[in-house]
Amino acid sequence: xxxxxxxxxxxxxxxxxxxxxxxxxxxQPDDTVTIFALNVEEISRAWRVNxxxxxxxxxxxxxxxxxxxxxxxxxxITERLRQFVKAPYVTVHISEFHSxxxxxxxxxxxxxxxxxxxxxxxxxILAQAGGTKEGSSTLTLSRxxxxxxxxxxKARLSADNxxxxxxxxxxxxLRGSSEDARxxxxxxxxxxxxxxxxxxxVHMAGEVARPGAIELVTQDVVPxxxxxxxxxxxxxxxxxxxxxxxxxxxxxxxxxxxxxxxxAILAGKKxxxxxxxxxxxxxxxxxxxxxxxxxxxxxxxxxxxLLGTL
Length: 310
Description:
The chain is 21% helix and 32% strand. By secondary structure, the chain is of the alpha+beta class. The protein folds into three domains: 6-96, wza like fold (2-Layer Sandwich); 101-195, Roll (Outer membrane lipoprotein wza fold like); 201-309, Outer membrane lipoprotein wza domain like (Outer membrane lipoprotein wza fold like, Roll).
């Protein structure tokens, strides 16, 4: 067995751990690198990379190491030492990692910025963020273009051509045995988990000019008078004094019903009514049969098309 210097033996054994598959492969600003140069004590110690991503070493001089693989830094130092040392031998390893952020946002228990030491499985990152919330449907992984492509057949370039983007079903990622769960997330990646989007609708039916639905996108409620206006107003055959308002839950079950005087509300004689997601307004006609027909209308028959969005 070949002998080696004690410090070198320790360094080589340590480097085996540093350069595992889970470790980063390049140097970043504010990292600490430990250098060993045989017979060059001036630089054989730990050095902190400055915020500009530079090292300033005795004899060697200033080196920009931002994003530089450790192997290339070893070669660079070796070449610069040749004018001072015959057959220089140099080893470098990252002894302290700094600023390896992964941003997790959206429908997770603890959104924020995680610091990682290197590539980590997507499922592990979600676990560190506290897991996904109920109703989460899609996970979007974004990677800066300079970090390289995402190794997945569905990955694509973003619209601004600055990053790679990948959309994955949350249910597949949460299956620990899936390839999506084991996909490696790199430092400076970002993850956004989105909720399953359910349309929030207020339905207008009966004797209005344009029966249909109003989608609540940017607000939670809509005044009844505004909903009537968006539906094109009342027909001449309308009998608004006995307008029916029904409320349906997300399962389609009616949970409340009321008869209101829409005519008085439109005339300003009664206070406006606030409609929320799941409300259906049925304006009857001036004939009894028409009134009975509209009473039997459901939310489904009222939502032939969207009147507009709010």
